[in-house]
């Protein structure tokens, strides 16, 4: 939306006279703003009214904020310190208020003189800094501030209008400085090229783009802001949906071999062997997949299901249907541990049907091979030969499947487990191994709200498995505040001992392995007073190797404790997992390698150390490893973060619900700044600035329909140059590839 010629000018040039190259440099490095267009699309986060004051009570801990408030009082204290031993140290404490809450500002040393003169009781100003807690009170240390006198020529100019825009800022560049920079480039907004087709814009009563940019940065009324946001939301939703619609359109043109199961083939033989009936959800989703497989263009389907909802069973039946139809199926797993585990569970479920070409193999049997990077040369040669000749109908592997040496006889279906763990190139390379594009089924256990699925996976059809198979047990979760209440942590280890005494097993998860160089705090900064959040943040994350050692010698002494992490030799990893699965180990201290797919029904307890270092969906995934058998599960989230912090609130959310869809909404609301197109696949900064994927469900759904209609009528957008330009801006090369390769 921003790369039109007038808006392509680098910030360094037009702003040289006003802001100088230093500001342009900070904007580029800290906010990712490089051109005039980038700056025009850096929208205010919110607005303050001149006559109104901010709610100080609602300030988020540990975040950089800008507030508008009034000075209640200011006191200068002197104190003795190492630098000023004769009691000559100076500290200015200023209390600001919004009429309901209060916030303390602190200035030290030579920094007290200017604010002492300027911040007199009754003065109104904008203050910017990082919120911390000192002596159980909220404070801003050495905040930057801008007085709101309202009488001087400059203040009236800068803050024309009653609404003051507050921009997403950084410690290096305050909101009001960004505001001044925006005012400088605002005239260029007149030249912004409109991406929306005129019929769509007029039909929905949306203001033109130049007007929207003007109103979002310099609103005179709240109605101006509403008009601008409504328009800019449509831009974001529509341009993104056009990109996805073009992708769907291109996919629909590709040829594929239709794969229909035989009435009395491998799938039928497998279904006859099943000791249970499929859930209603599994039957419904299987039908959707089989309908797709029977068509002559490639299936692109996303299968979402809660942890343990039986996705693997659905995927296996799809693979068997393809083998029935003469093709081969490949399942791509993110780790060797998981590939081995899938191979074990698939061969167990299939029994003699997985023994194709062997004595004792059933009539319709096929061969199921595993292929990982650490296999011995002979086993690898065998597996490769079985794939090339078509002897093996099913292969399960890691990205070793993608290497050039791997040749398939006739690849018909690719199943990708845990899509977010795979890079674009890897999925694309596997797709390229079919004679024609194979069908694609992507599985994820991270529940994705409908709008996000439409936005992120808008090129895939979506199936949802939301029923859990019978016999799964409930999981209770609790937050353990280790810093506030150390005895809670001691009790957590007692609970682990109790579970083991009852014949069960436990996981302890840590964020780090611990064989790396310790990320110790910077010695230069030692000796400064730190808030409890800083203390919790600066300490290196807890490590598996240290933790296993401490537990083995301390609270879990006498129990069988083993470690598992990603840097171990694959054979060692496999041996540790086998021992744990066989019940020979009581407690497994691991990194997140156990996050997906690891299935040990006898493990009932999980303690997650430094739980605040993990994301919401990751915690939900990890928790899904317990309660997989008949005994109830227990998950303890250990943290040192203080009660008021955002991290603690996040953990409370996870502890309060087991509904993955609800958690993914919470996660999304908290990570609004994150890029919905997937930061992992694209280093570019957020493409969504005003569109809130959860709240704007209606806009996204309508934009999807409009986009589909536009692309159906004009796939190359020949008649919509503004839209083409906007697409180019959104899809820089990396993103283009991300969408291209799905």
Keywords:
25 helices, 742 residues, 7-stranded parallel β-sheet, alpha/beta, single chain
Description:
- There is one protein chain.
- The protein is of the alpha/beta class.
- 37% of the residues lie in helices and 18% in strands.
- The protein is built from 25 helices and 21 strands.
- The protein has a 7-stranded parallel β-sheet with strand order 11-12-10-13-14-9-15, sandwiched between helices. A 6-stranded parallel β-sheet has the order 16-21-20-17-19-18, sandwiched between helices.
- Helix 15 (450-456) runs parallel beside helix 23 (697-713).
- The longest helix is centred in the N-terminal third of the chain and has 32 residues, at 222-253.
- The protein starts with 19 loop residues before the first helix and ends with a helix.
């Amino acid at each position: 939306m921003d790369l039109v010629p007038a808006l392509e000018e680098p910030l360094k040039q037009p702003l040289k006279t006003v802001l100088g190259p230093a500001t342009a440099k900070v904007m580029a490095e800290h906010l990712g703003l490089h051109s005039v267009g980038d700056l025009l699309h850096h929208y205010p986060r919110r607005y303050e009214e001149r006559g109104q004051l901010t709610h100080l009570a609602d300030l988020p801990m540990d975040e950089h904020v800008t507030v508008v408030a009034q000075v209640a009082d200011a006191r200068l204290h002197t104190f003795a310190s190492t630098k000023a031993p004769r009691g000559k140290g100076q500290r200015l404490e200023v209390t600001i208020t919004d009429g309901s809450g209060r916030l303390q500002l602190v200035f030290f040393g030579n920094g007290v003189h200017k604010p002492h003169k300027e911040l007199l009781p009754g003065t109104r100003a904008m203050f910017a800094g990082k919120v911390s807690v000192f002596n159980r009170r909220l404070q801003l240390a050495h905040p930057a501030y801008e007085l709101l006198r309202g009488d001087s020529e400059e203040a009236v100019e800068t803050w024309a209008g009653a609404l003051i825009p507050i921009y997403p800022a950084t410690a290096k560049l305050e909101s009001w400085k960004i505001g001044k920079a925006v005012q400088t480039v605002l005239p260029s907004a007149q030249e912004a090229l409109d991406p929306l087709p005129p019929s769509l814009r007029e039909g929905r009563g949306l203001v033109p783009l130049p007007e929207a940019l003007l109103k979002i940065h310099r609103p005179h009324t709240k109605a101006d802001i509403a008009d601008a946001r409504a328009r800019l939301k449509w831009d974001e939703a529509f341009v993104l949906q056009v990109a996805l619609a073009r992708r769907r359109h291109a996919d629909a043109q590709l040829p594929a071999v239709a794969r229909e199961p035989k009435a009395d083939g491998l799938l039928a033989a497998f279904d006859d062997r099943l000791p249970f009936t499929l859930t209603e959800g599994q039957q419904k989703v299987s039908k959707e997949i089989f309908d797709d497989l029977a068509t002559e263009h490639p299936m692109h389907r996303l299968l979402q299901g809660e942890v343990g909802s039986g996705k693997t069973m659905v995927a296996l039946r799809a693979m068997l249907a393809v083998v029935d139809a003469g093709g081969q199926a490949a399942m791509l797993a993110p780790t060797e541990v998981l590939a081995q585990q899938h191979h074990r569970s698939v061969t167990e479920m299939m029994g003699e049907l997985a023994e194709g070409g062997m004595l004792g193999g059933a009539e319709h049997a096929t061969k199921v091979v595993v292929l990982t990077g650490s296999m011995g040369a002979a086993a690898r040669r065998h597996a490769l030969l079985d794939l090339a000749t078509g002897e093996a109908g099913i292969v399960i592997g890691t990205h070793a499947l993608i290497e050039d040496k791997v040749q398939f006889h006739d690849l018909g279906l690719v199943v990708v487990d845990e899509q977010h763990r795979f890079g674009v190139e890897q999925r694309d390379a596997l797709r390229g191994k079919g004679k024609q594009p194979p069908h694609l089924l992507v599985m994820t256990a991270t529940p994705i709200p409908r709008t996000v699925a439409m936005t992120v996976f808008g090129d895939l059809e979506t199936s949802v498995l939301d029923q859990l198979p019978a016999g799964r047990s409930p999981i209770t979760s609790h937050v353990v505040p280790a810093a506030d209440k150390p005895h809670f942590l001691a009790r957590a280890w007692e609970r682990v001992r109790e579970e083991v005494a009852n014949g069960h097993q436990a996981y302890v998860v840590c964020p780090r392995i611990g064989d790396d160089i310790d990320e110790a705090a910077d010695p230069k900064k030692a000796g400064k007073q730190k808030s409890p959040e800083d203390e919790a943040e600066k300490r290196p994350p807890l490590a598996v190797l240290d933790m296993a050692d401490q537990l083995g010698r301390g609270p879990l002494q006498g129990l069988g404790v083993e470690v598992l992490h990603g840097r171990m030799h694959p054979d060692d990893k496999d041996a540790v997992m086998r021992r744990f699965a066989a019940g020979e180990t009581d407690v497994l201290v691991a990194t997140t390698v156990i996050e997906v797919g690891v299935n040990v029904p006898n493990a009932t307890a999980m303690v997650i150390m430094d739980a605040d270092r993990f994301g919401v969906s990751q915690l939900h995934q990890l928790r899904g490893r317990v309660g997989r058998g008949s005994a109830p599960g227990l998950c303890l989230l250990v943290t040192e973060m203080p009660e008021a912090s955002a991290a603690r609130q996040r953990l409370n959310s996870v502890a309060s619900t087991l509904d993955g869809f609800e958690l993914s909404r919470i996660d999304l609301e908290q990570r609004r700044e994150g890029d919905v197109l997937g930061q992992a696949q694209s280093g570019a900064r957020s493409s969504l600035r005003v569109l809130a994927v959860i709240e704007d469900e209606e806009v996204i759904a309508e934009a999807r329909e409009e986009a589909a209609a536009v692309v159906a009528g004009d796939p190359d957008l020949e008649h919509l140059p503004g839209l083409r330009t906007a697409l180019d801006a959104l899809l820089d090369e990396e993103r283009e590839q991300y969408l291209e390769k799905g």
